[in-house]
Amino acid sequence: LPKEADVVVIGGGGAGLTSAIAAHEKGAKVILIEKTELLGGNTNYATAGLNAAGTKIQEKLGEKDSPELFYEDTMKGGKNKNNKELVKVLANNSSAIVDWLIERGADLSELTSTGGQSAKRTHRPTGGSAVGPNIVSALSKTAENEKIDIRKGTKAIALVKGKNRIVGVKVKEADGKEYTIKAKAVIVATGGFGANAKMVEKYNPKLKGFGSTNNPAIVGDGIIMVEKVGGALVDMKEIQTHPTVVHKKTNMITEAVRGEGAILVNKDGKRFIDELETRDVVSKAILEQKGKSAFLVFDEGIRTKLKAADGYVKKGFAVEGTLEEIATKIGTDAKTLEATLNKYNEAVKNKVDSEFNKKTLPKELTGTKYYAIEISPAVHHTMGGVRINANAEVLGKNGRPIKGLYAAGEVTGGIHGANRIGGNAVADITIFGKIAGENAATYSKSVK
Length: 448
Ligand code: ADP
Hints:
The chain is an alpha/beta fold and 448 residues long. The protein has helices at residues 14-25, 56-60, 67-77, 84-103, 131-145, 197-203, 221-228, 256-259, 279-287, 300-305, 307-314, 323-329, 334-350, 424-446; strands at residues 4-10, 30-34, 50-51, 110-112, 122-124, 149-152, 154-161, 166-173, 178-188, 233-234, 239-246, 263-265, 294-299, 318-321, 370-382, 385-387, 393-395, 401-407, 412-413. The strands form 4 sheets. Strands 1, 2, 6, 7, 8, 9, 17 and 18 form an 8-stranded mixed sheet that branches.
């Protein structure tokens, strides 16, 4: 195996795959190392879609939107804690990344919406199937066709620092064998730390005891390695909990179910929040209900329209039946649940939710068949991480780039501020993945 490359990418999720392909297409010799036997990381769990504004797809479907509006929604969602420069990069490059991904085999031809957005800009595959696996599969095939050197079962254990730049990565294979790969530039794309309960608790003690939706490999390796070579971290306490995770399990129920019109009721059969509020607000509201959980209620129309919803039913997460039957199954009063639904449908009809001021009222819940899934919040996304600039260069504590070191994806911080909008992660990891790949390739050519 060659032990030298222009660019070494650490991590084979959405950010890593994108940056490896982008660097390769710029003419760099790339090695990508992935510690597990599977590519995709948390990206494989990304369901809702990729947020982008001003795309050809939006134009075709008659959806009015602009990068400025995308910027504003993202800043507002992140409580203005976001790094403005990075959010501008996100918004302004979003339309182009959709084209780039489609050219490389991804399907992003449908539009939906998630909480906190003022336009339909969440691009997803046909039929509402999950975006993450679609992108990972398209990019894996592209990387394979391009014969990019991908080494699975190979874990990065340290960044190697030379006199004034990063010069390589120390790795460990599954059998324990260690070696160093010499590199002119290194891209850290190891994902966040949502599956590292100790690290979550260290940075945000309030989340002690929370479950996690993350892939078990997502434990903050990159953040720790970057810190050791003097990299700065940002927003580490900003950890997003996903409001709708199957109660006492790790399976997340995509926000798209609420996007299509599902409502949330508590154990008393009553609504308690605008279901499409931002994730932090919805999570908090659920934890305030009896038993710290709630039920996501939807009808046959939503199940038929959204593949993911159908999948949850098939996986056995939902109780199903007439409204009366599901009321019994979730242990609530049927009359109350019926009244809740009637009142909600009335609000949809009148386009005014006087109770919870829900701004988007997708549809009435109708028919004879309903579903209810018990859900509660769990750690979902770590918004903080390695500090980067608009070129995806890792910044040192003095604010200056560490030469030869780039980072992209969930390992970085600053883009989502204090709260990430659903669908913004897939945009983030691919946009900054591409920037990191291209810039690392260019930089590598300047190194003798
Ligand atoms: P992102 O969305 O930012 O791309 P993902 O969670 O999708 O992040 O992917 C991160 C990938 O990085 C995962 O496949 C994970 O197994 C891999 N990874 C994490 N730590 C290491 C490490 N130390 N060495 C190699 N790969 C790693």
